[in-house]
Specification:
By secondary structure, the chain is an alpha+beta fold. It has a seven-stranded mixed beta sheet, sandwiched between helices. It has a two-stranded antiparallel ribbon with strand order 2-3. It binds 3,4-dihydroxyphenylalanine (DAH).
């Protein structure tokens, strides 16, 4: 009996030493100390021994059992820590991998530009009015002194939705809508999407405009120039100058094209302004008396000035963006450059 105990003890120690995993260790435990394990069988045999042998072998078996359990516990702890360090060694952390961060959405650069410009106009006492994108032929053209047979219709290629309904080609119809609905004095800006079937690096079939309109008594081109210069200085810097050139729009008389000194070179001449020092930014003029009368305003008592410009063009100049399509491709790397909250 004594030899058998010693033999099992030794075999057990040997097998524990050779275990490479916790699973293997568990198998050894079951083999010797489990319900039908070899060592358990010896313990069960105790009851058949003579009363003199029982305490002797009982003590030997117990001592061996305690030893075996201690060895088992130690081996288990060792294998556990080995499995953690193996895991760490095999699963080394790749610090170049990008973390799975939740990005917060931001305002689109055109929206940011619009907010900035509207804020400036609001500071000058203008209020914001919006109108429909699907517009009537009447407000988009006729009320603005562009009858159906007028060649000026060619200035703005048009998406017609029906005979009398179209996608507005400019935000100017809002002038006519507001003048028809409200009494002067009026001082409004109208932001919104407009549509024309053009598409290249500087034209998009959908783009954004802001229309401005002031109706009051005794307004002059100087009031128009002063307003535009104030806005341009706030937007592009205090050195910016405004220049008027004669032009033609059916809804203004006289009409002007408005240039700003180039914000890239300060007026010296560069590639952005094609060496001229000036950049054309908008159309404007004194509201045509016919337009006032079409909208029920007495043109002998009141006059007005109006202007309209494209937001994309302003943003392209301000941020040096070469292609209008970049605004609408939804490339996050492009869009996030304008997100001030990320700084
Ligand atoms: N509606 C014109 C366009 O889209 C811009 C414009 C020119 C608006 C002169 C005006 C204006 O109010 O007076 O090209």
């Amino acid at each position: 009996m004594k030899e058998r105990i010693e033999q099992l003890r030794q075999e057990f120690f040997e097998e524990v030493k050779n275990c490479l995993s916790l699973d293997e260790l568990n198998n050894v435990k079951v083999k010797y100390l489990g319900k039908s394990g070899q060592f358990t069988a010896l313990l069960k045999g105790l009851k058949d021994l003579s009363p003199e042998d029982k305490p002797v072998f009982g003590a030997l078996l117990n001592k061996a059992k305690v030893e075996m359990e201690t060895v088992l516990e130690n081996a288990k702890a060792e294998l556990q820590s080995k499995s953690i360090s193996d895991k760490l060694a095999n699963e080394s952390i790749d610090i170049t991998i990008s973390k799975n961060e939740q990005r917060v959405g931001t305002l689109h650069p055109i929206q940011l530009m619009q907010n900035q410009i509207i804020e400036i106009f609001e500071g000058l006492g203008f209020s914001v009015k919006e109108g429909p994108e699907a517009e009537t032929d009447y407000f988009n053209f006729q009320a603005l002194n562009i009858p159906s047979d007028h060649p000026a219709r060619d200035m703005q290629d048009t998406f017609f939705l029906g005979k009398e309904i179209l996608l507005r080609t400019h935000t100017s119809p809002n002038q006519a809508r507001v003048m028809s609905a409200e009494k002067p004095p009026l001082k409004i800006v109208c932001p919104g999407k407009v549509y024309r079937p053009d598409s290249d690096a500087s034209h998009s079939p959908m783009f954004h405009q802001i229309e401005g309109l002031v109706v009051d008594k005794h307004l002059t081109l100087c009031d128009l120039k002063g307003t535009l210069e104030t806005v341009a200085k706030k937007l592009f810097g205090g050195e910016t100058k405004v220049r008027f050139r004669p032009s033609y729009f059916p809804f203004t008389e006289p009409s002007v094209e408005v240039d700003l000194t180039c914000s890239a070179c300060g007026g010296k001449g560069c590639s952005l302004c094609k060496g001229t020092g000036w950049i054309e930014v908008l159309g404007a003029g004194m509201v045509h008396p016919f337009v006032l009368e079409n909208c029920g305003i007495d043109s002998k008592e009141y006059n007005g000035y109006a202007f309209g410009f494209g937001l994309e063009r302003f943003a392209m100049i301000k941020y040096g963006i070469p292609d209008i399509r970049l605004f609408f491709e939804n490339d996050v790397n492009f869009l996030k450059q304008f997100d001030k909250t990320e700084d």
